[in-house]
Amino acid sequence: MKQYLALSEEVREAKEQGKPVVALESTIISHGMPYPKNVETARAVEQIIRDHGAVPATIAIIDGQIKIGLSDTELEDFGQSEGIAKVSRRDLPYLVATGQKGATTVAATMICADLAGISIFVTGGIGGVHRGAETSMDISADLEELAKTNVAVVCAGAKSILDLGLTMEYLETKGVPVIGYETDVLPAFYTRTSEFPVNFRADDSETVASTLSTKWNLGLSGGAVIANPIPESHAMAETEIAAVIDQALTEAEANNINGKDVTPFLLAKVEELTGGESLDANIALVKHNAYVGADIAVKLGDKLN
Length: 305
Description:
By secondary structure, the chain is an alpha/beta fold. It has 13 helices and eleven strands. The protein has one domain: 3-Layer(aba) Sandwich (Indigoidine synthase fold). The longest helix has 28 residues, at 277-304.
């Protein structure tokens, strides 16, 4: 396994010194935002994690290795390159074996973080059960990964383009706790609320860290969702975003867009229809998640050391 992992100098030193490390995905750079916003956001998020006492580890597949932490040059290259493959669990062996570039999704980032001994991962929103999944069977691999891999995911809930009710049902079936950070209901990415209650509420990072350490000390495998609502100043009106998503879904269906192409299409269409407001919201929520995730990682590190 170790021959496939390449830790950056910053991450390697952090591991040697017992400092908390926070994983970050690379799909948000290559597929989630346009250049140069993607690189600017990635650097800002990494700095927020440093400023709050942890070390960032952006994860990507490059030249047959799983990079745990990217150099400034690698980050810039990822942000500008086109045609980088999206990597989930099924894609990881092939892309590593063939030396291709790959941007890690939530599922793949969890796997790689776990291989590197990193327990906290910050992202924008998790995937889930897609609308119409009862006929399409379109369910994100993120959910299955949360059921088996010991990494907690700090996010702004699940993307509101999904069927949130079925997503929560799936997580319940798999025994994945959904912890609302200062909220009683599941945030829906662009909006702070939804109609679906979370399993537990935590009003501080200490409670989250204690819950995670207890879960894993009990031998209960699998991750957890730490659902952290988008800051109020950047939250979008539920009626507005619902109408936009409905239009985007209609266009996706009309254009026969399915599978892994659905999410990037819908996010791009939502950005277009909101005049860029959704992109600003996306950036704000990722930065907020970075702050919360770093704080949780620091508290969890204190319990594990």
